[in-house]
Amino acid sequence: TQLLEQSPQFLSIQEGENLTVYCNSSSVFSSLQWYRQEPGEGPVLLVTVVTGGEVKKLKRLTFQFGDARKDSSLHITAAQPGDTGLYLCAGEDDNFNKFYFGSGTKLNVKP
Amino acid sequence: GAGVSQSPRYKVTKRGQDVALRCDPISGHVSLYWYRQALGQGPEFLTYFNYEAQQDKSGLPNDRFSAERPEGSISTLTIQRTEQRDSAMYRCASSFSLAGGTANYGYTFGSGTRLTVV
């Protein structure tokens, strides 16, 4: 059972375009994390958001946690081929024990 | 070590055989997690440890799956009487923070063990 739904599942864009991917749930999470995964490798943590409404920026990436702590978005400005990968969101359960992962958004940025 | 190390990287086994997957976490990381990941999907939680104590094994699919971390460092995930549906990428992750605490620094994942049951 996927507690977190990510959309779109696949996204193919040209270098320089902007994009937003979404992570939605009916559950409230204590915190939410975004990971990026390249083929053959494990997911790599990008950011953790904790407070409802929180916005964090990491160079060209902007992460937002929904006010109700049920959803999140990742916006990439001026995408580059190096941004290609599987983007995963993960919500922390309310016992602060473990994270549940979404099914991911597979991003391909074409040069 | 510098990262989370998993071995073997690839394992092909015949249906009905037992397999043991090893995870060596980052030195000093107190919590250790096992996840299973299908191709193109997000990781699915199996179990986790704080130090040597197994805190939650609710994600283990059935009693053929077990895990241990006897000295609070290296962990082994064992699958008995393997079945074809067990084929997947098994990922281990460790974290500096104590699972169950209020601060979580995120996971560092290993490169995984690709298990194929034939």
Can you walk through the features of this model?
The complex is a heterodimer of chains A (111) and B (118). The relative contact order of chain A is 0.34. With 111 residues, chain A is mainly β. In chain A, the strands form 2 sheets. In chain A, strands 2, 4, 5, 9, 10 and 11 form a 6-stranded mixed sheet that branches. Chain A is built from no helices and 11 strands. Chain B has 118 residues and is an all-beta fold. Chain B is 0% helix and 47% strand. Chain B has no helices and 11 strands. Chain B has strands at 5-7, 10-13, 19-24, 31-37, 44-50, 53-56, 65-68, 75-79, 88-95, 108-109, 113-117. In chain B, strands 2, 4, 5, 6, 9, 10 and 11 form a 7-stranded mixed sheet that branches. In chain B, strands 1-3-8-7 form a 4-stranded antiparallel sheet, with no helix packed on it. The radius of gyration of chain B is 13 Å and the shape is globular. The mean pLDDT of chain B is 91. The chains are: A mainly beta (111), B mainly beta (118). Chain A binds chain B through residues 2, 4, 6, 31, 33, 40-45, 48, 86, 88, 90, 92, 95-104, 106, and chain B through 4, 33, 35, 40-45, 48, 55-56, 91, 93, 99-102, 104-112.
Structural class of chain A: mainly beta
What is the overall number of helices of chain B?
0
End-to-end CA span of chain A: 36 Å
Query: What characterizes the major β-sheet of chain A?
Result: 6 strands, mixed
Mean pLDDT of chain B: 91
Q: How many distinct beta strands of chain B?
A: 11
Q: Mind telling me the C-alpha Rg of chain B? A: 13 Å
Which key features would you list for this structure?
heterodimer; A: 111 residues; mainly beta; 11 strands; 0% helix; globular; B: 118 residues; seven-stranded mixed β-sheet; four-stranded antiparallel β-sheet
